[in-house]
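re the bet — no i am not wrong, look at it urself. input seq straight from the record:
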Amino acid sequence: MTAVPDRTRLRTVAGALAAAGLLALAPAAPADADVTVPGSDDIPRAIVALDARKCLEVADWRTDDGAPVRLLTCTGGANQQWTSGPGSTIVNVHSGKCLEVPGFSTAGGTRIDQWTCNGGSNQGWFDSNQGPGHPHVYANVNSGLRLDLYGGSPEDGTPVIQWPLNGSGNQAWYTDVAPAAR
């Protein structure tokens, strides 16, 4: 099988976004961006902070709209498992809701939560990493800001926010097959 060049994949994604009427709302992904999201192979994955080695989770197993997303020691629970959804969304396995930036905010420091998937650009994410072998750096389609840890803290319960790209380890993530899915 021949590998598809990144530019071709990006054009395909751009065409899909344009067809969905979302391209005008979204900042352009960098030419070298990998637009895949966790679980694009339908296998639930943990999203793990590279420096902290802790997992992105929906707090307290909540299933309500607006439930906060935070960092916590990895347990393998379904509230720490994510898969891809339509339109480059990242969906929590337990709640079935999308990772989002509330209110379409473009402000740095806005806390990330979950919400019923609705196709909004504030629920779209692209991986702005530097290619294979590099950690994921998730950027929100609406704001262009990166998934980040509040204050760079590795502590359990740290809120997950959006923040401008700064090259710090608190914006670097990797995905791992969730223990319950292995």
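see?? Residues 6-19 form the longest helix (14 residues). told u. also The first strand starts at residue 45 and ends at 49. so pay up
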